[in-house]
């Protein structure tokens, strides 16, 4: 992990509320910027834009961190409730919200070195922005549009259960730096 990002992530566990706010805003800004460019073409499709609450979508940045970092951030932020993650997914997570509209999911693996997506991400990349989540009114229909109109393949062949009873699917989308950004479409319960 790069030193500037390490310092930002460490700021999420600061004892100073203003430092936590600033760190959250920077993580959110980074994730939002990468995803915003990657999915910019999606907004031209009227139906997909409506499904994703365009032009002002609800965006949550998913930050993968090691277990120790996860615990420090959670304690510093008042020990938020852990999400109910389906047992087949090797993950733990909690949400952080900072005014006015900064939403983060802090993610870690249940089993360090495990086979889950978060464990694999941490082993390959270290701590960082693992995914960007977009609230969607109908994940099934949005997936159909992305497959048909944008020739994109979802990670899962069908929408599946996500944390706290949501329905989700994921897409790896080309990012501006030549890599990929994981976009999660989630439908609330």
Q: Provide the CATH superfamily.
A: 2,3-Dihydroxybiphenyl 1,2-Dioxygenase, domain 1
On the 0-100 scale, what is the average pLDDT? 92
Spans of at least 5 consecutive residues with low confidence: none
In CATH, the topology is named 2,3-Dihydroxybiphenyl 1,2-Dioxygenase, domain 1
Distance between the termini: 35 Å
What report would you give on this structure?
The protein has 189 residues and is of the alpha/beta class. The chain has one domain (3-187): 2,3-Dihydroxybiphenyl 1,2-Dioxygenase, domain 1. Helix content is 36%, strand content 24%. The chain contains six helices and seven strands, in the order H-H-H-E-H-E-E-H-E-H-E-E-E. The protein is globular, with a radius of gyration of 16 Å. The mean pLDDT is 92.
Short description:
With 189 residues, this protein is an alpha/beta fold. It has six helices and seven strands.
List descriptors.
6 helices; seven-stranded mixed β-sheet; 7 strands; 2,3-Dihydroxybiphenyl 1,2-Dioxygenase, domain 1; globular; 189 residues; alpha/beta
Write the layout of secondary structure elements.
Elements: H1 3-11, H2 17-38, H3 46-51, E1 59-64, H4 67-76, E2 92-98, E3 102-108, H5 117-125, E4 128-135, H6 139-150, E5 160-161, E6 167-174, E7 180-187
Parallel strand pairs: 1-3, 4-7
Antiparallel strand pairs: 1-4, 2-3, 5-6, 6-7
